[in-house]
Hints:
11 helices; alpha+beta; globular; eleven-stranded mixed β-sheet; 41% helix; two-stranded antiparallel ribbon
Amino acid sequence: MQMLDIYSDYLISQNKYATATGLSDLVDGGISHDQVSRFLRKNNFGSKELWQYVKSNVREYQTTSGGALLLDDSIKEKPYTDENEINCWHYSHAKGEVLKGVNILSCMVRYDDFSVPVGYEVIKKDISFCDIETKLERRKSSTTKNELFRKLIKMAVTNKILFEYVLADNWFGSKANMDCIHNDLRKSFIIGIKSNRTIALAENDAKNGRYTKVRDLELEEDVAHTVYLRGVDFPVKLLKKIFKNENGSTGILYLVSNDMTSSPERLYEVYQKRWRIEEYHKSIKQNASLEKSPTKTVRTQCNHVFAAIIAYCKLEFLKFKTKMNHFAIKYKLIVRANQIAMMELRNMAA
């Protein structure tokens, strides 16, 4: 694992493109670029190895109450790299468009201010088919993203990770996901739902098929309404939140939870913890070189993703030692590197 340690340190330290030659140059040839390439080519890292890496730290910070699992996906854009079963076209719900890149579904655990990924899946579109209308070749996954969503949560339970809630946005608000968390795992969830989701306001209405789209109801904000989602065999609390976007426009967030006892304020307070995974997506791209690798094959791309996740975990551990956030740590490293570069420049001029 020595190469993993060196390579993940390199992903934090460097600030341009993470290449085998670049790492070799950084250590003055102490490691050849062939060694780096071989490391990325021959290993097969995944969630099991990630859990082994973070397990002791999770056990240190875990609490019997207040823990939450955060799940979401993001796309590592690689528009100029040859297409394969993982580097292909994926719909980005963050940008509202189809992007070419590697789609990563992550599962994080959060206790207070400590949060690390404890599992992840690189989405593989391993089935090729011909689109009947366009006659073009398309790709799809043999395992859906929602199936992987449930797999990651079950893996966390198997690994005895303590958590009270599962938090996710409306892209994971399927009845199968809710049923798995509520009936199979006996856990609580707070998950977004889309405005066209149909609900009944009374059990009798649900039994008689009288459902209404959420957006068509005049629901009071910050009130937890007991409702029945179509296809879900248990009642949930529905919470409506109105928020302002950065451009000044307003939006509406609909949340549902199987926690029937907590107040609306408590449910929304817990759901706010989910935003840490958005910070993770930003940090792993900007501070851990996720998108800055010229890897071209499925194996090397997957192993680079794993190393970038490890680099993120290192930054999270350093956060508590240095009392600085990930971006401050990265900035400090860059400033120090520039100071050394300026000293070397002056020495050369002298």
